[in-house]
Amino acid sequence: MTATLTVTESGRADALIAAAMPELSRAFVQKLLEEGRVTCRGRAVKKSFRPEPGDVLTLEIPEPEAPEIAAEDIPLDIVYEDADVIVVNKPKGMVVHPAPGHAGGTLVNALMAHCGSELSGINGVLRPGIVHRIDKDTSGLLIAAKNDAAHRRLAEQLKDHTLARTYECVVVGNLREDSGTVDAPIGRHPTDRKRMCVTEKNGRPAVTHWEVLERFPGYTHVRCRLETGRTHQIRVHMASIGHPILGDTVYGAKKPVPGLEGQCLHAKKLCFDHPVTGESVEVECRLPDYFQAVLEKLKERAAR
Fold first, then answer.
1. What's the pTM?
2. Is-catalytic flag, 135?
3. Which of 149, 174, 276, 301 has a Cα-to-Cα distance from 199 of 20 to 30 A?
């Protein structure tokens, strides 16, 4: 498959392509560049190449290889499914796609068993069907595409912010206002490559809208709506305003919360236009048991 991109701003080729084509992972884009599959002005370019505004980048995207990862009969909490898309409620602790250290037991392994060969191949052999991701220790809704056409249209909605994602979380501390917006660019941490941070240098625009649902002594139950979808966005943004998510040992307190594995963050609602019919689809799931248990403990403490 051939795809073209007309450059409108300055930057490295790999970053420009990844930003303009969110359905392609950064690693996949870099692989295309390394293999000479990206050309500009008639010649192959490397990832460090800086095209000029007005240049056209041509990408030769190879046909998806047959996945080598194994289908696994893992139970799925399917919230919505039709011939083109599937929305699942991912449990806390499940990795989305295979990676070093997580070859099996992932959401992709489960989707392959459920959907067979129906998943989109756009994101390569390790991430068939995956349009967007949520962290291992974040629970909640994730949408996957069953064909490439549906994948491209959903990716376009991610890019233009019409695929709405709403989360709920418990943060440390008491927010003074009832609602607000964090508009701060997010990029890779300069010294710890496993973390993200708010940074102007190499940061990409990121916007999170939040509102208070309930206040407790020392903690706040918050709803967050993503306008953009950067890695760890809600976790980074809430920490940046002094209210890290409860249980987040990467961006908050290093000591784990007893009885809580990872951060108290749940992807609760998805709204999108169906990639084939164009009809509006709204999908919502209940708060998981671990989240409700946290709220119950906070209510009990507040009542003492």
1. 0.79
2. yes
3. 174
Write out the CATH class of domain 2-60: alpha beta
Fold of 165-267+290-303: Pseudouridine synthase (3.30.2350)
* DSSP string for 78-117: EEEE-SSEEEEEEPTT--SS-BTTBSSSSHHHHHHHHHGG
Q: Could you read off the pLDDT tens digit of each residue along the chain, which spans 304 residues?
A: 788 999 998 899 998 998 888 778 778 899 999 999 999 999 999 988 999 999 999 999 887 655 567 899 999 999 999 999 999 999 999 999 887 677 789 999 999 999 988 999 887 777 889 999 899 999 999 999 999 999 999 999 998 999 999 999 999 999 999 999 999 999 988 888 789 999 998 789 999 999 999 999 999 999 999 999 899 999 999 999 999 999 999 999 999 998 898 999 999 999 999 999 999 999 999 999 999 999 999 999 998 8
CB 49 within 8 A of CB 15: no
Per CATH, which fold does 63-157 belong to?
Pseudouridine synthase (3.30.2350)
**Active-site pick, 14, 84, 135, 137:** 135
The CA distance from 11 to 8, in Å, is 10
3-state helix, strand, coil in the chain (%, to 5): 20, 30, 50
Rounded CA separation 95/22 (Å): 20
* Two structure tokens written together for 117: 């060969």
- The domain segmentation of the chain, as residue ranges, is 2-60, 63-157, 165-267+290-303
Q: Is 168 helix (H, G, I), strand (E, B) or coil?
A: strand
